[in-house]
Amino acid sequence: MNSPTQVARVAIVTGGSRGIGRAIAVALAQQGWNVCISYIHNSAAAQETAELIQQAGMRALVVKADVASYADTRRLFDESHKAFGRLDALVNNAGIVGGQRSIFDVDEAHLHSVFDANVLGSFYCAAQAANAMSNQKGGQGGAIVNISSAASRTGGMPQEAHYAASKGAVDSMTLALAKELAPHGIRVNAVRPGLIDTEIHEAHGGQATLTKLAPTVPMGRVGTADEVAQVVGFLCGPLSSYIDGALLDVSGGR
Ligand code: NAP
Predict the structure, then answer these.
(1) Residues with catalytic function
(2) I want to staple 11 with a disulfide (CB 3.0 to 4.6 A). Which of 5, 6, 61, 89 is the partner?
């Protein structure tokens, strides 16, 4: 919570309805941020996240917006601006695995669905956040945190090259934008989670897969969404004021 004289900072968290995105939205609210979350299908889950933000004493805005659609992302940022009047951080969290698919079954529409959501969606939102936050364009600077994956450096699960490669692109985008946006007062970093207990793993066996793989993690367990969220909160806030262009692994040593 902020003192009465402090203006609350504002963050947009894409895919804030469930999993890691929800944990990030709640962690930011607990650190005194007003939070706009987006989702694509699950409005009930999005409303639950909004209630958790409000329980932390902060304001919440929920916007249904597909990050794979440039028009939807424009509307997301417009609605957030109308509600809050400022932007201090973007967390590019929305993402999909796209199921398991061998390279021998490559499919144009499938590849587009994964790259459109994970890569193009991150670009669309980063572009709009840059315009809103640039201290050369009337903004006050800020932070962009891209949720990448340890898969970008390990190659990921079997038959998920599409997912690993999309996160490799997110890493590269992070490194490039960190340099381009530093003169605009915007820091750009990525967090690379390892195996985190969320519903995303339904793409490849769900809880059974997590239980099987947990012993292969050096720390001997999967991680929680909150363990990722706390690092994202750090990267959004002033304690990380000299961190730019970092690809931070939150993966239990994996
Ligand atoms: P999750 O539980 O499946 O949640 C995904 C979230 O993204 C949901 O809020 C979903 O909205 C939203 N979403 C999906 N596609 C979207 C789209 N096109 N437009 C807008 N929102 C969309 O996944 P998660 O595990 O929390 O993953 C969050 C991020 O962490 C992803 O980028 C993922 O790649 C990354 N990550 C996760 C892990 C892990 O082990 N869990 C590891 C490494 C990286 P709805 O609720 O409306 O469906």
Answers:
(1) 163
(2) 89
Q: Which amino acid is at 207?
A: Q
Global model pTM greater than 0.90: yes
Hey, where are the domains in the chain? Answer: 9-248
How confident is the model over 169-190, as pLDDT tens digits? 999 999 999 999 999 999 999 9
List beta partners, residue 174: none
250 lines ligand 1 (CB under 6 A): no
The residue count for the chain: 254
H helix intervals, the chain: 19-30, 43-55, 70-84, 108-115, 121-133, 151-154, 161-181, 206-213, 225-236
Q: How far is the CA of 178 from the centre of ligand 1 (A)?
A: 23
Distance CA 59, CA 32 (A): 10
